[in-house]
Write a structure and sequence with these properties.
The structure holds three protein chains of three kinds. By secondary structure, chain A is α+β, with helices and mostly antiparallel strands. Chain A has helices spanning 34-38, 71-75, and strands spanning 20-24, 44-46, 58-60, 81-85. In chain A, the strands form two sheets. In chain A, strands 1-4 form a two-stranded antiparallel sheet. Chain B is α/β, with parallel strands linked by helices. Chain B has helices at 27-42, 61-64, 77-87, 99-105, 107-116, 161-168, 181-193, 207-213, 219-229, 261-277; strands at 49-53, 68-71, 92-98, 121-126, 172-177, 198-203, 230-232, 248-255. Chain B has an eight-stranded mixed β-sheet with strand order 2-1-3-4-6-5-8-7, sandwiched between helices. In chain B, helix 1 (27-42) crosses helix 7 (181-193) and helix 4 packs across helix 5. The longest helix of chain B is centred in the C-terminal third of the chain and has 17 residues, at 261-277. Chain B is globular and about 70 Å long. The N and C termini of chain B lie far apart (71 Å). Chain C is α/β, with parallel strands linked by helices. Chain C folds into six domains: 1-137, 3-Layer(aba) Sandwich (Rossmann fold), CATH 3.40.50.920; 140-239 and 321-336 and 504-574, FAD/NAD(P)-binding domain (3-Layer(bba) Sandwich); 242-319, Alpha-Beta Plaits (2-Layer Sandwich), CATH 3.30.70; 341-499, FAD/NAD(P)-binding domain, CATH 3.50.50.60; 583-637, Alpha-Beta Plaits (2-Layer Sandwich); 641-801, 3-Layer(aba) Sandwich (Rossmann fold), CATH 3.40.50. Helix content of chain C is 31%, strand content 24%. Chain C is built from 22 helices and 40 strands. In chain C, the strands form 14 sheets. Chain C has a five-stranded parallel β-sheet with strand order 10-7-6-18-31. Chain C has a five-stranded parallel β-sheet with strand order 20-27-21-22-23. The interface between A and B is medium-sized, with 26 and 34 residues.
């Protein structure tokens, strides 16, 4: 079915995507870069600031793109980054 | 992006010891992370968990996990773990140690524990050298690799750890790299839920020492080597699964059931005592 | 062949007065007895009768005849009859030759007895010359594998597979999408019965999934086809689903998958996840991962939510594509059609105005299982429209959009759709803008009447333009009502474009793999539009459904059963006979240039570079002879139409009065049949032409034409099928090429190239053939002796002699 799919799907509001909150423990980060490199949605990038260890911790580019795959949480050797699902009370 | 919230898995770690002292990009941190993820997913009772480690950077793992743990002398975690398991078979005993500790000086303990099917679980962080002491050649260092004691290239063939474990009689054998965190976590969960001698080899980056000596200066470069070279092949022949620069076969190799040593021991004791009382 | 004495028997038939009325048959028989190798020549009243055949049989035995020539009607009529008679008398059927002195002589020269008789003598002389060189041969029997392949899992493919499987044959059904069902699974209701489409299709889909004789290969594509009728070796690539057969289709994985994308099945009107099932009734029901959407596409498993959610542990990201090789005897092509994309028509605003939708989007909206739960809503504000318009013939019947044909189903589809709307929302006004309403089938007219009764208004005149009201997003249609002859400008809430069907955009791939032809419209070409509507020209391959032309479900199912029956004939017989008119290779002369392999329409010749020769698969050979004509080293010739035999015929014609004769080479299927048709219709034309029959015009090697001119022929005609209609797919393309080269050579040597004519004439174009002969007669009459000599010189040098 190679048809052109150009419409906004009708249920785009109904099918909820998990909304994420990304927490970075900046001074715990050792700058290995795994979370930045392997994030499938490229949500993270190396920041310009230098932390207490002398390395550049990651910073969030656009939190809205995060889909809560939690790979960063699983792969960080230093427990310096984790994501949590945003608990929305009246829609986010 | 707040900082007042604590890491959800912190309760499995000894908070005072965190952050750990391992290098940037060290695989030990990932192994620890995968381990506590598995503990959390299974909701393991930390009072029933014993972690034993040996000498090496990975040896500090026993100190970081918030459970009863012991940091033994070089090569002896399996011996200690055997004692714990036989004294209190209801405890979950996990050995987390390195390639040199478990397979060089501790090699004999390993093969006999596997042969006897003692119900301890062994997670080996294989970083291809003796990292903590400066990067000397070890039993898993690849041929022609550069280490501080093989500056002209290693002339020894390395062990194929999964083959060794399977041949010794381990009932669960798996190999993953630190890139395959999801599968590693799933394997550790399996490990924690089964009986019998179970072994996971984790191919782990040591960027500061092994990586730096062998043209992979950062953890990311080593992880990319894992990505390019690894091939997931479940239940393939462990004898053919040597690690080469081009190919790292990962997956589960063995998953069988055999009566465990402690089970047989206690059954025999119970039988003898019953006969004696009659 | 041993130096056995050639003993030819010639029979000149009177055919009542059909031949005897304009040809002196006794004279011809007497003349025949003077020809070399002829030991017996008779004339007889009705040679094809039982007595006539008995006579031939007795003569064969009594006179030890080892070749037989019958001069009577067209070989296209009675060659099989006489061949059988020869066989019954113990003579190999390929030692028989016919001279056509009825359709191509007596019937077309009714008023010139002398000329007709002389021509008949010439024709007999040609036949005797060829007969002397005939060699015995046996037909090749090729076994047919009793397994079938059906390409395409729409309703046509499903029906064909079920019919063949129920007959008892093993069927492989290969479908590109993850599930079978095709277009029909996406429709809501079907005309004219208003059945729920998926409800009637799903039981068939289940049957396919469960049938012990059907092996279903979904998410798979055919990537290579080798072989020939009865013996195809097909390579199929099974693309990985990343989900094992253990999947119970519980859907827990989809629920936790974080990635979403527009669902192709719902025409993009609803979302699906990276792990999904195409639709609820999918067969097989196993889920599938869209790896382009899944987060794990870069070779790292970053997200394992679905793996954790699956109770059966059925998800496996390590699956790899698998190529399998299937051996089948027949193939049914049921690849379906694509839907026209109206974005290319800017005047309708599709793609810009949200409330202009296609008929396919309409089906999904009104389907109870669709993205809006069966509520027909305007995409702009989700409200039910109160006034809708249908525009017909979008992308069909138009020179401008490039699709000139009628798409068959759109009129009835619109009528059905309008009744559906009226059923649910009786207040909604419906207008249908049409050019013609085609309601030709059973029950169609009744449905049309019902629609009109329900108040659907039909306006004859497509809108020229649609303009959108930016605030309300309503649409203004502007056009002319051609029946009332007045313009209209009407406002609608929603417009539905009744889009047509077009050939699959990648049908070229299947065409190349199976050596099929396509018509000008781009759909696959059947062997004969009336008498072999489901056969492809290539043996062993059949068509079903919209792959061959746009059609509705009933016709697709009918055609599928027909294709299954045709395939069943081959497989029931278990063997197929290949006529012994295949190529003969002289290995010594072969220089391994590979030109023959390039021109073979059936890929029956392969170049073996190591052995420095070509290899011929006789069973795949169609018998056109193009390879023999192409060979520059004289290494190839065609059995029963050898170079020597054809040259012998040319020499026989041109022995006397060559400068008054036209030597014509006609292909068996079109030109020769066209000449026969001229005879049947009693069209008269000058008696100067002498026809040499080949199976295909591609057999005509340049050296034959050169030989004719070198022997002093006045003119030469090469005649074959129209380009695109060649019985051997495309062999006549090479005829064109060769004739053009000959023309160039004639021009370069100062010869009148009008002496060589090329004619494309079908079997129905007797008139065309006759007029051509008239045209060429003028050339024959105007030629000077000097010209004849010059041509002789030019072409004798070229080795024509």
């Amino acid at each position: 079915m190679p048809e052109r799919l150009w419409r906004t799907p009708l249920d785009v509001e109904k099918i909820s995507r998990p909304k994420a909150e990304i927490y970075i423990l900046k001074d715990q980060c050792k700058g290995c870069g795994f979370c930045i490199h392997y994030c499938p949605k490229k949500v993270l990038e190396e920041s310009d600031e230098i932390n207490a260890r002398g390395v550049h911790p990651p910073r969030v580019v656009d939190e809205k793109n995060c889909v809560l795959c939690s790979f960063c949480t699983a792969v960080c050797p230093d427990f310096a980054i984790f994501v949590k699902e945003k608990q929305c009370k009246d829609g986010c | 992006m707040m900082e007042a919230v604590e890491h959800p898995l912190l309760k499995y770690l000894r908070a005072a010891m965190i952050p750990h002292i391992w290098c940037s990009g060290c695989g030990n941190g990932i192994i620890l992370n995968a381990f506590v993820h598995a503990l959390d997913e299974l909701q393991i009772d930390l009072n029933k968990l014993v972690v034993v480690s040996g000498i090496g950077c990975i040896g500090r793992a026993a100190g970081y996990i918030n459970a009863d743990s012991f940091h033994t002398t070089h090569g002896r975690p399996i011996a200690f773990a055997t004692g714990v398991k036989l004294a209190k078979p209801e405890l979950e005993v996990v050995v987390i140690s390195g390639d040199g500790d478990l397979f060089a000086i501790g090699g004999n303990h390993f093969i006999h524990a596997a042969r006897r099917n003692i119900g301890i679980k062994v997670i080996c962080a294989n970083n291809f050298n003796y990292g903590m002491t400066g990067g000397q050649v070890g039993p898993t260092t690849p041929l022609e690799a550069l280490t501080t004691t093989t500056p002209y290239g290693n002339i020894e063939h390395p062990f194929n750890l999964v083959h060794l474990a399977a041949a010794s009689g381990a009932t669960y054998v798996a190999r993953w790299t630190t890139l395959h965190v999801r599968m590693l976590t799933a394997s550790i969960k399996k490990l924690l839920q089964r009986k019998g001698f179970s072994f996971i080899e984790v191919v782990s980056p040591c960027p500061e020492i092994y990586g730096r000596h062998n043209k992979m200066r950062t953890g990311l470069e080593m992880m990319e080597w894992f990505r390019e070279a690894s091939v997931i092949a479940n239940f393939s022949d462990p004898a053919k699964a040597e690690i080469t620069p081009e190919k790292i076969v990962v997956g589960e190799f063995v998953d069988i059931e055999k009566p465990t040593y402690e089970q047989l021991l206690y059954e025999k004791m119970a039988k003898l005592m019953k006969e004696e009382s009659e | 062949m041993s130096r056995e004495e050639i003993r030819i028997g010639v029979y000149v038939c009177h055919c009542g007065l059909n031949i005897a009325g304009s040809v002196d048959c006794e004279e011809v028989a007497e003349f025949a007895s003077t020809l070399p190798h002829v030991v017996l020549a008779r004339d007889y009243r009705y040679t094809c009768s039982d007595q006539g055949q008995e006579l031939i049989k007795n003569d064969i035995r009594e006179y030890r005849l080892n070749r037989v020539v019958v001069a009577s009607c067209s070989p296209r009529l009675h060659e099989p009859t006489f061949r059988k008679a020869c066989e019954e008398a113990g003579l190999n059927k390929y030692l028989f030759e016919m001279a056509n002195i009825r359709e191509q002589c007596s019937w077309v020269h009714l008023h010139d007895r002398r000329a007709a008789t002389e021509k008949a003598k010439d024709l007999v002389k040609m036949a005797v010359a060829k007969a002397a060189l005939l060699k015995p041969a046996s037909d090749i029997e090729v076994p047919v594998i009793r397994k079938a392949l059906v390409i395409g899992g729409g309703v046509a493919g499903i029906q064909a597979a079920l019919d063949l499987a129920d007959t008892g044959y093993k069927v492989y059904l290969v479908e590109r999408e993850p599930s079978i069902g095709g277009m029909m699974a996406r429709l809501d209701k079907t005309f004219p019965t208003m059945d729920c489409s998926i409800c009637i299709l799903a039981p068939k889909m289940s049957d396919v999934g469960r049938h012990p004789n059907i092996e279903l290969l979904t998410n798979s594509e055919v990537i290579d086809v080798k072989g020939y009728i009865g013996n195809f070796r097909v390579k199929v690539l099974k693309k990985p689903r990343y989900v094992k057969k253990d999947c119970s289709a519980c859907g827990e994985c989809s629920k936790v998958c974080p990635m979403t994308a527009p669902n192709e099945f719902d025409a993009g009107l609803a979302l699906r996840h990276a792990i999904y099932t195409p639709f609820a009734q999918a067969v097989p029901s196993t889920y599938i991962v869209d790896m382009n959407l899944c987060l794990n596409k870069d070779g790292v498993i970053v997200c394992d939510r679905c793996i954790k959610a699956c109770e059966r542990q059925a998800i496996d990201f390590t699956m790899k594509p698998e190529a399998v090789e299937l051996e089948v005897g027949t193939i049914i092509v049921a690849t379906g059609a694509d839907v026209f994309d109206p974005s290319t028509l800017p005047q309708y605003g599709y793609g810009k105005y949200p409330n202009v939708i296609t008929s396919l989007e309409f089906e999904r909206l009104i389907n109870a299982g669709g993205p809006s739960g069966g509520r027909l809503i305007r995409p702009s504000d989700m409200k039910v429209p109160r006034r809708v318009a249908f525009i017909q013939c979008v992308g069909s019947r138009s020179n401008k959009t490039g699709r000139t044909y009628c798409s068959n189903v759109c009129c009835m589809n619109t009528i059905k759709d309008s009744l559906l709307i009226k059923e649910h929302w009786p207040e909604t006004e419906i207008y249908v803008f049409y050019v013609d309403i085609r309601a030709y089938g059973k029950g169609f007219e009744d449905l049309y009447k019902r629609a009109k009764k329900e108040g659907v208004i039909f306006i004859r005149g497509l809108p020229a333009e649609i303009i959108e009201d930016k605030k309300t997003r309503n649409l203004w249609l502007i056009g002319e009502n051609t029946l009332l002859k007045e313009p209209y400008k009407m406002e609608f809430d929603m417009v539905i474009l009744s889009v047509g069907l077009e050939p699959r955009k990648d049908s070229e791939i299947i065409q190349r793999l199976l050596t099929l032809s396509r018509t000008q419209d781009g759909f696959f070409m059947e062997a004969h539009p009336k008498l072999r509507p489901v056969d492809a020209a290539t043996g062993g391959i059949f068509f079903a459904g919209c792959a061959e032309s746009p059609k509705d479900i009933k016709d697709s199912v009918t055609q599928a059963s027909a294709a299954a029956a045709r395939a069943g004939i081959l497989m029931a017989k278990g063997k197929v006979t290949v006529e012994a008119i295949t190529p003969i290779l002289d290995v010594e002369k072969c220089k391994a240039c590979g030109l023959c392999a390039k021109v073979c329409p059936y890929n029956a010749i392969t170049l073996n570079k190591e052995l420095k020769r070509v290899e011929i698969v006789e069973a795949a050979c169609g018998g056109c002879g193009t390879c023999a004509a192409e060979c520059p080293s004289d290494a190839l010739t065609q059995n029963h139409f050898t170079d020597e035999q054809i040259i012998a015929q040319i020499d026989a014609v041109t022995e006397y009065d060559a400068d008054k004769k036209i030597v014509a080479f006609c292909c068996n299927w079109c030109a020769y049949a066209g000449a026969d048709f001229a005879g049947v219709s009693r069209m008269q034309y000058p008696p100067s032409v002498r026809i040499i029959r080949t199976m295909c015009s591609g057999r005509v090697a340049p050296k034959f034409v050169e030989r004719a001119f070198a022997r002093g022929a006045a003119a030469v005609l090469v005649a074959g099928c129209h380009p695109g209609d060649c019985h051997y797919i495309n062999a006549n393309y090479h005829t064109q090429r060769r004739v053009e080269r000959l023309w160039k050579k004639m021009e370069q040597n100062g010869l009148n190239k009008e002496r060589l004519q090329l004619l494309w004439a079908s079997a129905a174009e007797g008139e065309r053939f006759a007029s051509k002969i008239y045209e060429m007669q003028k050339i024959v009459e105007s030629i000077t002796p000097e010209e004849i000599e010059r041509a002789k010189k030019v072409f004798s040098k070229a080795g024509g002699a």
